[in-house]
Structures are given as C-alpha cells and as structure tokens.
C-alpha cells in the first residue's frame, strides 16, 4: 500500500499539521506513542524550519518549535509534562480555529475516490 498526501496551499498545510499535531499530542499524553516516535514522525526542528521558509503563521512555527522541546520537559520536569502537553493541545486548537477558511477545502489524499 502506498499513501500519498498532496498539499500545496499554505493554509491547508497548516490545517493538516495542526490536526496531525492534536493526534500526536493526545497519543503522547495517553502513552500510545513514545517521544522517540513523535520525533521521528513530526517533532523535528526541520518541520518548524520548513514552515518558516514557506511563510507560515509565526504562531504555528513557534508551536512546532516548542513541541520539539516536550521531550526535554519529560526529562527535566516530568511532573509538568501533562500540563505542557495540554497547553500545546489548546494552542493547537486555537491556531486551527484561526486559520482562514477562504480556501475551498480539498481532498488531502490523492485519488481517494478512484
């Protein structure tokens, strides 16, 4: 099986990453994913850099930079991790709600109906 997600519009990319981030944060909170998995999948400095290079909302760039630091919070102040993850979830939801809906929604998966 080969799954491809094709996004070209900046707003759609930001929406997709916010939705993906909500799932990642919830998975970390519930222990369904490890921080090593999260790093492999999404929480790499490259993601924030790529968003910045493509002129994404500065708040989403900052959010992904901070999500990369959740592992440090786990290691340094584990008693604050749950609150930090909950805060990042709230920030992600706020960002998702703030992203303009001027662009017509599009299919995220190629050839979904074929």
TrEMBL record:
InterPro entries: DUF3969. This is DUF3969 family protein. It holds the Pfam family DUF3969. It comes from the Bacteria. It comes from Paenibacillus lutimineralis.
